[in-house]
Amino acid sequence: MRNVVLIGFMGTGKTSTGKMLAAKLGAAFIDMDQKIEEEAGMSIPDMFARKGEAYFREQERALVKRLAARRNAVISTGGGTVKNPDNVADFKKSGVIVCLSASVDAVLARTNRRGTRPVLDSADQGDRRKAVEQLMAERRELYKQADFTIDTSELSPLQVVENIVRFLKTRGVLHA
Ligand SMILES: Nc1ncnc2c1ncn2[C@@H]1O[C@H](COP(=O)(O)OP(=O)(O)O)[C@@H](O)[C@H]1O
Ligand SMILES: O=C(O)C1=C[C@@H](OP(=O)(O)O)[C@@H](O)[C@H](O)C1
Ligand SMILES: [Mg+2]
């Protein structure tokens, strides 16, 4: 199987849905943030605080290169992985890209725990909704590079997985 790469804004469900999808497909599951944390022995918020965002983006880039060389994996990216066009190009070559989207309200509800998403925390100058709206607008075009997009706002993670499986079958990534 070609890789199935989940992209999308923070809180759209890439990590949780990716894990369920991999289990359903019997494929390997890789969450890029978890992998970077494991390899660095440091959480993502700590990495941002101690080494800076540029350092994190370098780790992300290096990991994409390694992941694009393999197959049979469901890969959950971080919300900003698509900011580097080389990452998108590498993932396009190695698999199919599925974007998870969600409304601002859904993202706010799902990312209300401070201290876990440094990009959102630093954009948030007291108005978290505005921070989400602005970041989403900045990234909208990047997420459009996906082969398929699912609005997850009103769907359960299981329904999202079912939608992805249906799409993979129509594309011949999975046999019906
Ligand atoms: N479809 C969904 N409906 C409701 N809650 C969801 C859905 N998908 C994910 N969540 C919840 O939203 C939060 C963020 O999900 P996560 O998988 O970490 O998103 P991401 O990796 O895209 O940032 C988690 O608490 C998760 O349980
Ligand atoms: O959008 C971003 O720039 C980021 C999203 C995070 O992943 P999730 O989208 O899984 O929260 C994580 O990679 C890091 O905090 C940066
Ligand atoms: Mg995640």
TrEMBL record:
GO cellular component, one term: cytosol
Residues that coordinate or bind Mg(2+): T15
UniProt-annotated binding residues for ATP: G11, T12, G13, K14, T15, S16, R117
GO biological process: amino acid biosynthetic process; aromatic amino acid family biosynthetic process; chorismate biosynthetic process
InterPro entries for the chain: P-loop_NTPase (IPR027417), Shikimate/glucono_kinase (IPR031322), Shikimate_kinase/TSH1 (IPR000623), Shikimate_kinase_CS (IPR023000)
GO molecular function: ATP binding; magnesium ion binding; shikimate kinase activity
Keyword annotations: Amino-acid biosynthesis, Aromatic amino acid biosynthesis, ATP-binding, Cytoplasm, Kinase, Magnesium, Metal-binding, Nucleotide-binding, Transferase
Cofactor note: Binds 1 Mg(2+) ion per subunit.
EC nos: 2.7.1.71
Chain sites annotated for binding substrate: D33, R57, G79, R139
Pathway(s): Metabolic intermediate biosynthesis; chorismate biosynthesis; chorismate from D-erythrose 4-phosphate and phosphoenolpyruvate: step 5/7
Catalytic reaction(s) noted: shikimate + ATP = 3-phosphoshikimate + ADP + H(+)
Pfam families in alphabetical order: SKI (PF01202)
Protein location: Cytoplasm
Subunit composition and interactions: Monomer.
Role, per record: Catalyzes the specific phosphorylation of the 3-hydroxyl group of shikimic acid using ATP as a cosubstrate.
HAMAP family reported for this sequence: Shikimate_kinase (MF_00109)
Membership in a protein family: Belongs to the shikimate kinase family.
Protein name stated in the entry: Shikimate kinase
Organism of derivation: Selenomonas caprae
Gene label: aroK
